[in-house]
Specification:
The protein is α/β, with parallel strands linked by helices. It has a single domain (about 25-420), classed as Alkaline Phosphatase, subunit A (3-Layer(aba) Sandwich). The chain has 14 helices and 17 strands. It has helices spanning about 5-25, 50-60, 75-85, 85-90, 105, 115-125, 205-220, 245, 275-280, 285-310, 345, 380-385, 400-405, 470-475; strands spanning about 25-35, 60-65, 65-70, 125-130, 155, 225-230, 320-325, 330, 335-340, 350, 350-355, 370, 375, 415-420, 430, 435-440, 445-450. β8 and β9 (about 335-340) form a beta hairpin. The longest helix has 27 residues, at about 285-310. Mean pLDDT is about 95; it is low at about 5-20. The structure holds calcium ion (CA) (2 copies). The site of one calcium ion (CA) has 6 residues, from loops.
Amino acid sequence: MMKLLPILLCVLLCNLPLAIGENAKPNILFIAIDDLNDYISPLDNQAGVKTPNFDRLARRSVTFANAHCAAPVCHASRVSMMTGVHPVTSGLYNNLFKAHGPRWRHESPALTDAVVLSQHFRNHGYHAAGGGKIFHTLQWTPGDSQNDPDAWDDYRGDPLDPISADWPRPKRIPDAKAGLTPGRPLGGRYQLFGAKPLQVPDEQTGDHMVVDWAAEQLAAKRDKPLFLAVGLFRPHIPFEVPQKYFDMHPLKDVTLPTVLDNDLDDARVPERQSWHRWVVKNKQWRKFMQGYLASISYTDHQLGRLLDALDASPIKDNTIVVLWSDHGFHIGEKDNWEKFCLWDQTTRVPLFIHVPEQVAGGGSPDGQSTRQPATLTDIYPTLCELAGLPIPPQCDGESLVPQIKDPSQPRNRLSLTSYAFGDAAVPSHAVSDPRYRLIRYDDGFEELYDLKTDPHEFTNLATDPAMAQIKARLAQGFPQQVAPRRRIPLDSPYNRKP
Ligand SMILES: [Ca+2]
Ligand SMILES: [Ca+2]
């Protein structure tokens, strides 16, 4: 018996983690993608790109097919996502550059004491690790970062310079030598607006390294639940990924977006129309579409590696997965490039959420899709509810758990995206219900689209008397009061020294 005792003890103790695990908090895998639009195959896929790993994620999640960023720019979108505070509360509608640290706490009084999502999970017993681009930072501005290092237990590399070292710039080709007229947008020193195959293996690219790091985090044994944030930088410009991803999209097979002559006659002209003129004049449209598609295929590959790592990890059955992009993207739709507008194409984002079976009284009905409207500020309260955490009072959003459990469950809430155009002191707004989209600009001009019959937003119905009731209903989703547009606080200690 004395000899058996250690064996018995071991049997008992070895079974303990399983017993604890059954009641443990779920882990969170939080995947942020930069500038990814609805071209992926589980969404509209107008460009025809095959994204097998996004399909794989869609089969194991609920797809929010009508999800929108809170602001159509990196910085404002990401801060609102990570704090749950909508731009109409914070006044952060735009990108604000040259920060080294969480300057957003000084950019808006509504954000001074906001608890970052990862910090909130830490405060409730989680280990929070982050890597890549979560808060705003760019490939070509080393040290320009709005990350909050104090919100994490662990951040890959330098938390205030998380991606630039992994994405070195290729050699510059003068525009004249490349056969281009001068005046390339974002030309100058770095030629950021372009597409170029990289002659390096995947292993030498930034997102590959971030996924390698994430795989180690997923595999590690811990005594705490994990909140793991993984930020992939592609398909953000420049469209530079290894050659093999360009080879997947031969130029002759590349389709351009569907466009309509005189489309802008009944719509606000985008600020980036000059970019479009340059692209068309220089016959770069197909080439840039190829570069964006190649970048999406590269991202799809990295997502596949990340899902493989999750499936091989000890936490595969107890991990909530959320994947989102910070806003949509234009490749010449409506003469626009990138973002900075309020059309559906600009603000609609991929959003997939998987909840495991044992969490919150039953998992997500995976493989289903919903057009119930969502705003990315809804994610913070959603994750709190799923993990059984209190929802901080700062949160403006509303939990998506009812739609995760039953994707057909109606939502009494429209999506809301806000943006300040040009130098406007007041923001413009856009709302969506499952079918219609209404935009009201700073000068009172309105656009209304029926996305069921007009998915490309060609016909503005705002002045159609037959649509008056629908328009009035949607207009109720516009905020009554909004915070004034915030600018760079000149006295913040987080201002980057020149
Ligand atoms: Ca972005
Ligand atoms: Ca039009």
